[in-house]
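User: Hi! I have a protein structure encoded as tokens and I'd like to know what sequence might fold into it. I'm fairly new to this, so please keep things simple.
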């Protein structure tokens, strides 16, 4: 694996979540509500790594179960 910074990793994970979510025709609001949030702020900010906001492991586990994908698919850095 090439050398990447933590910020690059968080950004890529957010991109992966957004890509898979969109492929499943799920909105940020739907994902947020399924995760137990009342607004899209966490998902929206984390998908674009806005102000260093990123998904934590618990959130990634939850997202993987909601989207029915493996965590590995979400954290794929290739």
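Assistant: Happy to help. Inverse folding works backwards from shape to sequence: for each of the 78 positions I chose a residue that suits the local structure. Here it is:
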């Amino acid at each position: 694996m090439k050398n990447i910074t933590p910020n690059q990793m968080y950004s890529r994970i957010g991109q992966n979540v957004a890509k898979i979510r969109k492929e499943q025709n799920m909105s940020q609001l739907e994902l947020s509500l399924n995760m137990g949030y009342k607004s899209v702020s966490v998902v929206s900010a984390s998908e674009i790594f806005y102000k260093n906001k990123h998904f934590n492991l618990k959130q990634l586990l939850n997202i993987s179960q909601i989207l029915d994908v493996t965590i590995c698919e979400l954290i794929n850095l290739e």
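A useful reference point when you look it over: Residues 6-74 form a domain with the 434 Repressor (Amino-terminal Domain) fold (CATH 1.10.260.40). Feel free to ask if any position seems puzzling.
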